Automatic annotation (TrEMBL):
Belongs to the eukaryotic RPC34/RPC39 RNA polymerase subunit family. Keywords: DNA-directed RNA polymerase, Nucleus, Transcription. It comes from Mytilus coruscus. GO terms for biological process: transcription by RNA polymerase III. It is found in: Nucleus. It comes from the Eukaryota. This is DNA-directed RNA polymerase III subunit RPC6. GO terms for cellular component: cytoplasm; nucleoplasm; RNA polymerase III complex. Pfam families: RNA_pol_Rpc34. DNA-dependent RNA polymerase catalyzes the transcription of DNA into RNA using the four ribonucleoside triphosphates as substrates. Specific peripheric component of RNA polymerase III which synthesizes small RNAs, such as 5S rRNA and tRNAs.
Amino acid sequence: MASAVAVKEEPAEILDLEIRIIELCQEQPDGITDAIIMKDLPLCSPQQRVTCINRLLSTGKIDLLRSGNKLIYKLKDPDAASQAKGGDHQEKVVYQIIKEANNKGIWIRDIRYKSNLLLTQVNKILKNLESKKLIKAVKSVAASKKKVYMLYDLEPAQSVTGGAWYSDQDFESEFVEVLNQQCFKFLEQKAAIARDTKTDPMAQRNASFTPLYDIWKFISELGISKVQLTKEDIETILNTLIFDGKLECTTVASAGGSGDSGRSKLYRAINPLVETTGLMRMPCGSCPVFDKCYEGGAVSPTTCIYMKEWLDS
Ligand code: SF4
């Protein structure tokens, strides 16, 4: 849930440096020394130089040879290298497109559209960049079969992972239900304690209100969540309880409040004044596909699982 985004700027520079080293090798087919690279790239740090050389050696683009008492770098195959140079440019374009997408990532279709490359080329480049650990593929909760690509060191945005309520792109309905129950139980206990004070009804009502911070602290200390839940996560759960008619919320002025500065949200458990009628609880009332529901259609009352659940309840 952390929104901190840490990007290493190094990879784009490394790709630039690699291209330049290959160009130097092409200009001097007999090979180049470290001294030539240092002279041509004075701003390149020793560590960057070593990284580039190692990558060029490991990807088979250059050879390391001994000439007298000097080590020289030579292109393995000039033709292959010129192809590689073109490939590097394409790789860099794809890398930049992915970098611009930041931690929201980008789909392969959009990479193709923006880079004007063929699908096979994009696939090859993505595999290459993934093997170099410059980028990674992340499954998006927005579409289970689609992956988005982002820089390797980025933490995916909540819109991609789904946040605390998703695990491996699956909605954790049981976890949400447990949180729901625990929050409600905690607030019911608070209300019971307030009733036991036997003060006047107004004082009891006020005493049963609990700040968001206390509810968040209680849930955090229960240790039922594998991920660190934020106050906003708990607020989402409390909102669902409000919609279910089980809680009410009020906002009071306070220093260092949970919401907007100077305001704090308080919650209390309530008993609904009027029980909802059977017709109100019927799923069709809030069904998003109500207009498309008819016998023989893609959705119908006969095949609807929500209708079945309602009839069975
Ligand atoms: S029967 Fe099911 S699908 Fe049809 S409107 Fe009702 S809830 Fe929606």
